[in-house]
Amino acid sequence: GTEGSTLMSYFSKNQIQALKPKITFSTLRDLKCPVLQSNDLQGKPEESCSTEELFEWLGAVLNQVSLDNNSSSFLSTYCCPEPNTVVEKAFLCTITGFIIPEKIIQLLEQLCCYFHEPKLAYWLTLTVHGFADSPVSWRESEHGFHKGGENLYNFVIFRNLDYWLQMALGAHDDCPP
């Protein structure tokens, strides 16, 4: 109808276009990383860290929180869980925008190819965040914002192509299938 054509002319006149995802790269040097064993989700003292410890550490790294356990820091006295190892270089790539599931699968496949090359990494991660105030979440439920609006999942992929899948969601959200 007339309303549809008016909207189309408005959008074309104002050159409103879909925003391309924004991509940023950074290199983290001398990063303390948890030691992980793909077959040990709970971790073992002096051998490996648990999935919960990794998830907490990853949150600190992605939010650029210092891992030095500095008592004079007003922000955080967090430190990397034990056992850990210092990685000379860790690469962080952040893609911000509306990303369809097919692209996420493509990213996962490309990350798995990384292990085909003679690299030193034992594991890598891919974290996918929904917007905190997104109207929908898992299944057919509305997204319960309430406090933090948690709405994310994280793949941890190991050199032998075993993987962990971690999910975080708000208390009022449906659990994913």
Automatic annotation (TrEMBL):
Stored InterPro entries: RNase_P_Rpp40 (IPR013893)
Record Pfam families: Ribonuc_P_40 (PF08584)
GO BP of this protein: endonucleolytic cleavage in ITS1 to separate SSU-rRNA from 5.8S rRNA and LSU-rRNA from tricistronic rRNA transcript (SSU-rRNA, 5.8S rRNA, LSU-rRNA); tRNA 5'-leader removal
Organism domain of life: Eukaryota
One GO CC term on file: ribonuclease MRP complex
Coiled-coil regions, chain positions: none
GO MF annotation list: ribonuclease MRP activity; ribonuclease P activity
The protein, known as: RPP40 protein
Protein species of origin: Tachuris rubrigastra
Species lineage: Eukaryota, Metazoa, Chordata, Craniata, Vertebrata
Encoding gene (name): Rpp40
